[in-house]
Amino acid sequence: MDAHNKPNAPVLDSYWMPFTANRQFKAAPRLLASAEGMHYTSVDGRTILDGTAGLWCVNAGHGRRQIAAAVERQLSTMDFAPSFQMGHPIAFDFAQRLAEIAPGPAGAKLDRVFFTGSGSESVDTALKIALAYQRSIGQGTRTRLIGRERGYHGVGFGGISVGGIVNNRRVFPQLPGSDHLRHTHDPARNAFVRGQPEHGAELADDLERLVALHGAETIAACIVEPVAGSTGVLIPPKGYLERLRAICDKHGILLIFDEVITGFGRLGAAFATDYFGVTPDLVTTAKGLTNGAIPMGAVFASRKVHDALMHGPEGQIELFHGYTYSGHPAACAAGIATLDIYRDEGLMTRAAELQDDWHEAMHSLKGLPHVIDIRTIGLIAGIELKSRDGAPGARAYDVFVDCFERGLLIRVTGDIIAFSPPLIAEKQHFDEIVSMLADALKRVK
Ligand code: PMP
Fold it and tell me: ipTM score of the complex?
């Protein structure tokens, strides 16, 4: 029996689902009812192995009682408090805890923290901070924002402007003056690579090209995901991020890393900033910040950026920006409990211990039908399939549906399958993922 025909199944009409083909979904819904550890349970009682940490966020695994208890305690002590011209200790405590592990090297950490409600809000916040910073140092002509093709930076107007996904941009206007670097996806030169590919560092020179085209004095910031996740796991070529940093420094352009996916241990270091050893001026985060349990985002800013904005007349608001839910007490409680778990269980570096087994498992899928590339870094993998003639994305979607029926949650974007299992995974889970995916690949047309 279909899940939606069950007696206690929800009526599906009213919920307009995000990033979903609503009519197709509602004709054959996939509904999750509970979650524990590495697994979901569907409404029809099947166990589903979570190959994607929810949506790249449940890094410490599901059902963490410590987080639930902290949120419960906070909500019954103080459910909400305004953050405008008013404070509550837990938001300051959480920011201090984050400052201790903030991205960047000791002595130059990005340890000033602005709270938001999501990844999209973090991106728009970082872009606005960059603009405000440039103006505050007398560089007010710098209003242009540079992103990258195939970048995903959420769905705010700032995020879609610097983002590089055509479907997210097609019907919406964008910020004037936004421009894009080329993406780094180049399977002709870099197929089946573990870790960073050899070829493509020179693509960073696109930023020089845009400087030559527009003039450095018009460019405020350049934003990239260190590893692009949502558009199919694009790993930066060796030397690429370093080159981007050098060009930004040369021309007074702020560099922003969008670490909404890579933050909080995904690569085996707390942040991709630390993993790659390249330090941007601003870092956007969300997702793993609270283990996905409560919506929240945070922007980490360097002292240089933060302190420039802290000048000005006494009593003046330094940045006209913020959200009702910035530093929400329940989200901060969830965040502190999450950081405790990451620390106590060593999860920030666990991906580094697991990655050899993970990469081995993923690359064992080479040679299976339709597989044209496999890319792995930290506890992430992208498996690219050959598109079915005339129907891009259809083959991977069929694999996604089949895997769900077999008991495996994967994520697909176009014809690329993306994996990002919770950091509590064991080797046996990798074997299960490989086995279910291999069966699905052998069956798909
Ligand atoms: N930036 C990146 C790199 C992301 O992966 C995402 C979400 N997948 C976002 C921003 C947007 O986050 P949210 O959906 O929480 O707004």
Answer: 0.99
